[in-house]
Amino acid sequence: MSKAGAFDLASGLGGKIEKNDVLSAVDKYEKYHSDFGGAEEDRKANYTDMVNKYYDLVTSFYEYGWGESFHFAPRWKGESLRESIKRHEHFLALQLGLKPGHKVLDVGCGIGGPLREIARFSSTSVMGINNNEYQITRGKALNRVAGVDQTCDFTKADFMKMPFADNSFDAVYAIEATCHAPDAVGCYKEIFRVLKPGQSFAAYEWCMTDAFDPNNKEHQKIKAEIEIGDGLPDIRSTRQCLAALKEAGFEVIWENDIAKDSPLPWYLPLDTSHFSLSSFRLTAVGRFITKNMVMGLEYVGLAPKGSQRVQSFLEKAAEGLVAGGKKEIFTPMYFFLARKPQ
């Protein structure tokens, strides 16, 4: 059960940030990024603050427009966005070979949409790690509604420094989350540490593809739009992710950019030329209505000042994601399955 109404959107804007401080938080967040003079080194050095501000500011928008699972998915013709998202999560569970009783870790779990779906699908216990207090509070409430609060929980912590003992989990996964890590090798090493020997780690990563040209100004612009709109210190290439996995000690079983094989483009829900009643809020008309609704809510004081600017950089992100997808220079679903040696 996701937040659905305008009042829920307004009340959630800003997350745990005091409503009077939202505007200054937007200022600080924007200044981390290149369009506002920010540097990659600063984003990496201050990734905890940057990512926390990002998710405090955008989670309510995400849930309003996307639902409980904040990720893309390959999609068949005739399949709804919601159906494709569930199938994408089930695929991950099947690749990991999850079995009833397994203890599983979701790295960068958001409000727990995939966590709940995978736990119910596989009859496992799933722990989500997340460093954002607002998302954890929201996730725990949704766990209770879904009836999985006895088998699923959250830990507030930085996934670069996880508070778990070595060899704690039967499986680990990450869905479009470890892209927030300032250092892929360090992140994967922590996952390696908490995973039991002989067990697997699977993920969908946000990456620049081999088609990305770092010297192409249009490509640079698209990459920067995705970074500011999605709270990223940088976007690694698929080759960098693969190399980081191996350096962390994993054996890579298989890897592939799953976006290449999607019958429908993964970015279709954000493409303004596309219209869908089942995901109306993501269409051009739906986003126009949301934009004006947020403007009105901010004007009458129901939404904090700065809400329109959050909606604006999310729009910029959508434009960058669609452009990156069409030019095939970016993918949100570089998949890999890796094993920790015995």
Describe this structure in words.
There is one protein chain. This protein is α/β, with parallel strands linked by helices and 342 residues long. 45% of the residues lie in helices and 16% in strands. The protein has helices at 6-12, 22-30, 40-45, 47-66, 81-96, 113-122, 133-146, 184-194, 217-230, 238-248, 284-299, 307-326, and strands at residues 103-107, 125-130, 152-156, 169-175, 195-208, 251-257, 330-339. A seven-stranded mixed sheet has the order 3-2-1-4-5-7-6, with helices on both faces. The longest helix has 20 residues, at 47-66. The protein starts with 5 loop residues before the first helix and ends with a strand. The model has no long low-confidence stretch (mean pLDDT 91).
Quickly list its features.
seven-stranded mixed sheet, 16% strand, single chain, 7 strands, sterol metabolism, 342 residues
Query: Describe the biggest sheet?
Result: 7 strands, mixed
- Protein structure class: alpha/beta
Radius of gyration: 19 Å
In which range does the helix fraction lie? 40-55%
| SSE order | HHHHHEHEHEEHEHHEHHE
Distance between the termini: 41 Å
Task: List the strand order in the largest sheet.
Answer: 3-2-1-4-5-7-6
**Number of extended strands:** 7
Average predicted confidence as pLDDT: 91
Q: Catalogue the unreliable spans.
A: none
**Tell me, what's the shape?**
globular
